[in-house]
Amino acid sequence: MKQHIKTFLLGVLCSATCYALSSCNNTTGTGHDHSHSEEVHEHEAHNHEGHDHEGHSHDAHSHEGHSHEGHSHDAHGHSHGEGNANPDEITLSAESAAAAGVTAEVIVPGPFRGVLEVSGRIMPAPEDETTVVASVPGIVSYAAPLIEGSRVNDGSPMFTISSRHLQDGDPVQRARIEYETARQEYERAAKLVEDNIVSRQEYEAAKGRYETARLTYEALASNGGENGTAVKSPVRGYVKTCLVKEGDYVTVGTPLAKVVTGSRLYLKADVSERYLNRLPGVNDANFRLSYGDRVYTASRLGGRLLGYGRSTDETNAYIPVTFAFNGTEEIIPGAFAQVWLLSAERDGVISLPVEAVTESQGHYFVYIKLDETCYKKQEVTLGATDGQRYEILSGIKGGENVVTRGATHVKLASAGNLIPAHTHNH
Prior knowledge:
Structural class: alpha+beta
Number of helices: 6
Radius of gyration: 45 Å
Helix content: 10-25%
Shape: elongated
Distance between the termini: 58 Å
């Protein structure tokens, strides 16, 4: 029994000695007077701020000789520690850029035309407008629903004119009777002239009456029907204006509607009189319609400058500048347009496509591609625009690889880069 007691006391003494040695080592070996778990809790309580424990600074603490001092994720030679070191640098993967259609090109100085930005309107060319008129007198009815903008084909019925219940009767029936009478007189005169019973003069007169009656009847009969005489469109186009209502009475030659083909249009730009001295140099125009974003060029539509006014009047202080061009399905006569009048070229000008420039809080930016995945946001000062390109006054000197398509996607990527990146700094 005594032997067992001695063994127990010896074990307790050894344990106490080991504990004391361990406590000493923890105090002097690492310079900390608390365990690692306590240190973690205290670091959390102090929000990872550097603090001293018995004269030792914890800006970066050691765990068994391994240092976790704040380290930098250095990609492309650019720091990405606490967020981006340079907020103007943007990271966008090559795969994402290709999917978004982001493209860049090296910018070099080149020609840029003088620009005068004004407003204008698309007008139908006078030679492109056709008036549909009544061929017979009578009461008008629509052959099909007609409103402004309705499509019509060459030879398609637009109106029907009926004279059946009028005092003069149906003109087609009258023309048929006159034709039959003239035909009989002509055939009789043709037989009698051979026997010298009628003179050659009487025969020629009968023949003339017959030919006139025949032409009149055939013209009316070709458009006649049970409901009256059809009035057809002479051209393919669309209705600009309908000039009569259902049930109106018309006479021969009364205008019924105006049809435009849209094959030839005018661009009429209104220029303030203070720019009169700049008009002699104008030779082309870009324009954008009020209902779309596409920019058209008059010369590329087969257009040319017709001329410009030389004076103003009391009611209008603007000078008209008119271009004629070939119409397309997308361009509607009567539409308002933003117009850029173009004059002589200037060489050595830095310019960028309109879509290469983005705007934020009144400032304008472009994006320079540094490498496959890194872009730099660059502020620029804009000059004139011709609707398709901006003149760059400052910010770009030439030789930069600038994003010309998909700049909006790069801008959106920059918003994602504003989120602070993970850092190991404590």
